Amino acid sequence: MAKDASETRLATYLKSVQDGSLLNYPVLERELIKRSIPESTIRECFFVELVKANKYRVRIKDEACFEALYARFSQRSLENRASAAVLGNSHRTKVSGSFLLLRNQESPLPVVVWFEADTFHCPLEQSRFALLVENLENFIATDQMVSFLHRCGVTVNVDQIDVIYASGNQITNGLHGSFLTRYQALYCLFDVDLGAFKMYQTLCQLLPDTLMEFVYPEDIVLRLQESERRMTVDERADLLRYVGHSVELDQLIQYMRDTGNKLEQETYLVHQE
User: Fold this and answer.
1) What range does the domain containing 141 cover?
2) Which pTM was predicted?
3) Cα–Cα distance, 41 to 85 (Å, whole number)
């Protein structure tokens, strides 16, 4: 019984990572180590940031690694141990399916876009543009986020844009490429931090012929100055790895280095005029 409870707890923690929810990361790490997952593999898999006491923001660093963990330990997998492989090099193996949540003016309730092998199934006709949001709270506030785009210098008719939940780093799954390339442009409204830049870089590599823009509000300098999320010395140095992707990203990196801060996109929900 204790083992079942422990496995359920691990599944819940992995789901929290996928959803972008805060969690007690040391518990997640301890549960993975108990199941003989090497610490080196865990470090490869996650970005970890302490937000407040016992609450960490955990982002996916290596999508393939996380997918292997999720396939092995998620709630859905608890009843199907025959499909679980011992993690060694298996973290480089992709799962065969995926899904994204999408909302637009036609469908205020989220719909599921399902991906399997080389095909996808979307219950709606895709719009011309897509807004990618990283966190669940922002996806819930779809209308507010579409309206907020105008404060980022993007003037797109609300009837022409789909809002897609990026779900941490899930959006970068290679299975999503054929779906995302059908958009005329992708607007990435993410957190202002290294994890978001890594996600943006991966998307650019996945979709080299798709117009993609990392967007942020015109008053970003003030927002960064007011942010309480300080960057570490290592984070400031690592920013330079993302210089050269685009003019707007280079400017944002300079703002971050000038202020020494990073920013959560949830703050866009409370900093409204």
Assistant:
1) 97-269
2) 0.70
3) 15
